[in-house]
Write a structure and sequence with these properties.
With 304 residues, the protein is α/β, with parallel strands linked by helices. The protein folds into two domains: 1-35; 42-302, Rossmann fold. The chain has helices at 2-34, 44-51, 55-62, 66-69, 124-137, 156-165, 168-182, 195-207, 225-228, 248-260, 286-302, and strands spanning 86-91, 97-103, 111-116, 141-145, 187-193, 211-217, 235-240, 265-270. It has an eight-stranded mixed beta sheet, with helices on both faces. Strand 5 (187-193), helix 8 (195-207) and strand 6 (211-217) form a beta-alpha-beta unit. The longest helix is centred in the first third of the chain and has 33 residues, at 2-34. It is globular. The termini are far apart. 38% of the residues are buried.
Length: 304
Amino acid sequence: MENVNKTNKKENMKKAFLLVLASVVTAALLSYTFKSKAHSFLAPEGYIACYNHATKDQIELDANTPGFAKLHLAPAYFKLTKETGKMIGYPSPDGMDAHAYFIKSKKKTNKWLIVIQEWWGLNDYIKREAETYATELGEVNVIALDMYDGKVATTPDSAMVYMKNAKSERLESIVKGAITYAGDKAKIYTIGWCFGGGWSLQSTLLAGTQAAGCVMYYGRPETDISRLKTINCDVIGFFGNQDKGIPPPIVDAFEKNMKEAEKQLTVYRYAANHGFANPSNPAYNKEATEDAHAKTVAFLKARM
């Protein structure tokens, strides 16, 4: 009897061991099956994953990617002097007030240039750009939007937080409020860099039939051809061939998609990195910036 009990005990232990082993193997197989491959920042495999999101949401998702922050070193300090514009507030569709740096044309005009910040926020560099375009373009109202609701970053870490928390619904509401502030008779032109480059195009889409010209510097293009077909103005874009954030294949796809949408897009590419037009960026490329700026002014003037 004692031998029988010992035998049964051994059999039970053996069954228990096999059951545990089977569970471990099953868990391992399931883990392997469902584990997704992690893509490096905007590696070719990641392009498809990016396109599965609405482009305006993907701009926000970029901030969750450590590689995106590495493209932006902390900007050099700059303080704008002799401001001709002022900060204003205006209502937005979501019920919250929005704000912008506004330079009103000396002569009454229905031409409005919407300026959209880089991922740093509405800092003095962006205000200076607004001042420059107000001077060079002449009779145009220039409004530089505060897309972060008063927050301005001075380090990549803080910029990542602000950009990540800037939800597309709020950003869209800020833009729509600005278009309403300009009025239904306004001709809307847009320009932006990086984060703002992507939102320059999104703002043009939001402007509908009021859109009169779109300028984007190394911003994420819209990928939905059905949305591109609704663009009502010409688009010009400036990109760096060494840009790891918006690399050449994305620009190639943008040109292809715009052609399929039967829309006018002019693209200029430079031997430059992301952020090449920002003088505070170590990747600043003076020659490329001056060429792009001249082409931007000519593009806008021809449509004003």
